[in-house]
Design a protein that fits this description.
Elements (H helix, E strand, L loop, with lengths): L1 H10 L29 H14 L10 H5 L5 E5 L5 H9 L4 E5 L3 H13 L5 E4 L3 H8 L5 E7 L17 H10 E11 L2 H12 L4 E2 L16 H8 L5 E7 L1
Parallel strand pairs: 1-2, 1-4, 2-3, 4-5
Antiparallel strand pairs: 5-7, 6-7
The chain binds S-adenosylmethionine.
Length: 245
Amino acid sequence: MRERQADVFADIPELERVEERDGAQRREVKSYVLRGSHLHAFQVDALKNFYPEYGIPFRPEPLDWTTVFGNDNPVVVEIGFGMGDSTARIAKDRPQYNYLGIEVFLAGFAKLLHACATMPLPNVRLMRFDAVQVLRSMVPDGSVAGFHIFFPDPWPKKRHHKRRLVQVPLAEMMCSKLVEGGYVYCVTDWKEYADHMLQVFDSVPGFRNPYAGFAPARPWRPTTKFEQKGLAKSYEISEVWVEKR
Ligand SMILES: C[S@@+](CC[C@H](N)C(=O)[O-])C[C@H]1O[C@@H](n2cnc3c(N)ncnc32)[C@H](O)[C@@H]1O
């Protein structure tokens, strides 16, 4: 298993590094933990064969969406797509949008890469990098139609709350990246995180919440694997939908 991952990194070195660190700078608090991924043969093959077409390497310079996707369709950015099952379904069902999926978990990244090539999903591109740094350095202001954040790690312990992805600084950054009327759609099965999300967006003046509280589920959002596990334990699902004023 380890050899295969190393083998992939030997072939595509840019896949190994998922965050930028300036020598003297202390590492920022991260919303993810990097674990070694077990890769099946189809995932190794997907990385080697399809990354050049569907993958985007991290470079600290703004992306040009028209060049990236080959059209001017609106762009939706998903942070932390996991295994990518719902990303693939949404991209297939809603081809009028382009999707940039960002995920550091290599096995999930490789699985969605495989789906991109086999389904196929010409409107999807993928990055294996810290989404916060991608947004900061590569996503132009006022250029994104929507953000999807489905079941972000809840980091339930109080001392870990600082690791939660949905925080005021990220909300402000997403707001600056959105077009007018663009949206952020977050879903979680952790009630206390859901309340925290509402507060976060409420405190950023650039957002309005058309539902005042939690939103109804979008009919086009499929149930994810992660969600099914929560549902099996009777966790309540909360949906947060806000729009840029
Ligand atoms: C709990 S999983 C949920 C996955 C998927 N959205 C689902 O609903 O099944 C959260 C995912 O977010 C990813 N993630 C967390 N922070 C991230 C970041 N800053 N950049 C990229 N991926 C991140 C993690 O690697 C993890 O796979």
